[in-house]
Design brief:
Strand 2 and strand 3 form a beta hairpin. The longest helix has 17 residues, at 59-75. This protein has three domains: 2-111, Alpha Horseshoe (Serine Threonine Protein Phosphatase 5, Tetratricopeptide repeat); 124-206, Immunoglobulins (Immunoglobulin-like); 214-448, no CATH class. The protein contains nine helices and 22 strands. The strands form four sheets. It has a six-stranded antiparallel β-sheet with strand order 3-2-5-6-13-12. Helix 4 runs antiparallel to helix 5 (59-75), helix 5 (59-75) runs antiparallel to helix 6 (79-92) and helix 6 (79-92) runs antiparallel to helix 7. By secondary structure, the chain is an alpha+beta fold. The chain starts with a helix and ends in a 7-residue tail after the last strand. It has helices spanning 2-6, 14-19, 22-36, 41-52, 59-75, 79-92, 97-106, 385-391, 411-415, and strands at residues 124-132, 143-148, 155-159, 165-172, 174-181, 186-195, 201-206, 213-221, 234-236, 263-264, 267-279, 282-285, 291-296, 303-306, 309-322, 347-355, 362-368, 370-383, 398-402, 422-423, 431-437, 442-448. The radius of gyration is 32 Å and the shape is elongated. The relative contact order is 0.11.
Length: 455
């Protein structure tokens, strides 16, 4: 019997059953066995009805019996009987908020009992949430979810209609988190909203209009000769080391420990810049005068800009291999640098990219209007067959090596045209470019090298 009880949606403490009146406990246990083991719903109904008649002896068991009986009615298509029992739970068992809350979730909005009464306030209150723009226009398509924060596992969700109504139902009083999102990317979260006893909770939320979209067309005019001399291969920090691994040599510097590392036309078959982008968060003034921050979480797959054009990166997977003094490439040992001490074996890091098969001269993206920042994140070189052999990679993935640069590296201005891109040496990225776009506007952004980019 204990095993059966533990598998149920509502598992009752064994002590509760032991101290309950024998007739009520036995009726409930019989109902559970007939429902879950024997699948004899008629017998289960009879047992639960017997338990309900004695509910004053133990309200928790009685509320559970009502809920289970309602569940059977719902499963067997007896909708009206099920709804009547759900309504009874909400009206009569305010001291069982978890069961009453789940009963409310199963009722249509127009059949949820009204809150409050002439004799006192209910533990349930009406909740209404509407989604609008700041100028008061209704916005359909926003998904709303309220989740209790007090361990009662009460939740409610809905989607705004043409009138902006996203949620309208009765819910137990208490504190809830409120998450609001729409399919194209905008979302926000109110950490705590409070439903008070017997008081209607009515909230209008000002949200971004998803229809306000802009278009960005991305092109690449990267010059391969701008990469001449860069040594590719990121020497990863060993786990036990507390020191930062050395960067790739600067233009004009001797390769030193990077002498056996590949460069363009010697182990590297192509070069590119990885580009990411994001729509900046915005703050909208809510009806109560407070600001609420909205974040855009739409599709943001990074781009690979090369001399051949632009490709979308679907996936980036990392890999590492130890330095191998017998291989053609990566034979130098950075521990020979006298001021660097490693306690573990250094490793070569590389990236396996899943990208579009062919590069496009231009990629068009529809994004939320507003402030959009493009980030030139890192310099990459695609390994040729000889480098793949040195890495011990024998699959068909596109393997790219990163050229890890120092913060104020001169390579950044040699590879990217600084008239359009702002160098960001202190942020461990190459550069950024920010656009401010109005709804319906189309802008062009080019990942380009300076006119004279040769060494």
């Amino acid at each position: 019997m204990k095993t059966i009880l533990c598998t149920l949606l509502f598992t009752l403490p064994l002590g509760t059953l032991l101290v309950a009146a024998d007739s009520l406990a036995s009726s409930l246990e019989k109902g559970l066995i007939e429902e879950e083991v024997n699948r004899d719903f008629d017998a289960a109904i009879a047992a639960y009805e017997s338990a309900i008649t004695r509910f004053d002896k133990d309200r928790e068991l009685a509320a559970t019996a009502i809920f289970r009986l309602a569940e059977i009615y719902r499963r067997t298509g007896r909708t009206r009987e099920a709804e009547a029992l759900y309504q009874r739970l909400i009206r009569e068992f305010h001291d069982q908020p978890e069961l009453a809350g789940m009963a409310a979730e199963r009722l249509p909005e127009d059949r949820t009992p009204q809150t409050g009464s002439a004799t006192g306030s209910s533990e349930f209150s009406s909740v209404t949430i509407r989604i609008q723009t700041e100028d008061g226009r209704s916005i359909p398509g926003y998904r709303v979810r309220m989740q209790s924060d007090n361990g009662r596992r009460v939740s409610a969700s809905g989607e705004s209609d043409e009138t902006g109504l996203a949620l309208s139902r009765n819910m137990p009083y208490g504190d809830y988190s409120l998450r609001i999102a729409e399919p194209t990317g905008w979302e926000t979260r109110f950490r705590t909203v409070t439903v008070e006893v017997g008081a209607p909770f009515e909230k209008i939320v000002h949200a971004p209009d998803p229809q306000k979209r802009a278009t960005v067309e991305v092109r690449s005019a990267i010059a391969r000769e701008a990469f001449a001399g860069i040594r590719f291969g990121h020497i990863g920090r060993p786990r036990q080391s507390s020191l930062t691994p050395p960067p790739s040599p600067e233009p004009g510097e001797e390769p030193g420990q990077f002498d056996s590392f590949p460069e363009y036309d010697d182990g590297i078959r192509d070069v590119a810049v990885e580009i990411s982008f994001h729509v900046e968060s915005i703050s909208l003034t809510q009806p109560d005068g407070e600001g609420q921050t909205w974040h855009w979480r739409g599709k943001r797959r990074p781009l690979l800009a090369s001399a051949d054009g632009v490709r979308v990166i679907d996936q980036i997977r990392g890999g590492t291999v130890p330095l191998d003094e017998t291989a053609r490439y990566f034979t130098a040992d950075p521990r020979k640098e006298p001021r660097r001490r490693y306690l573990g074996e250094p490793e070569i890091h590389f990236h396996k990219l899943t990208v579009d098969a062919e590069a496009d001269s231009e990629i068009s993206m529809e994004l939320a209007a507003g402030e959009i920042t493009f980030v030139a994140r890192r310099i990459l070189g695609r390994a040729d067959a000889n480098v793949l052999t040195s890495l011990g990679v024998d699959d068909d993935s596109e393997v790219w090596l990163e050229a890890k640069l120092k913060e104020d590296s001169a390579w950044a201005s040699r590879i990217l045209e600084t008239n359009y891109w702002t160098l960001q040496p202190e942020h461990s990225i190459l550069a950024t470019q920010t656009l401010t776009l109005e709804p319906g506007e189309t802008a062009h952004i080019t990942v380009n090298s300076p006119p004279d980019s040769s060494p």
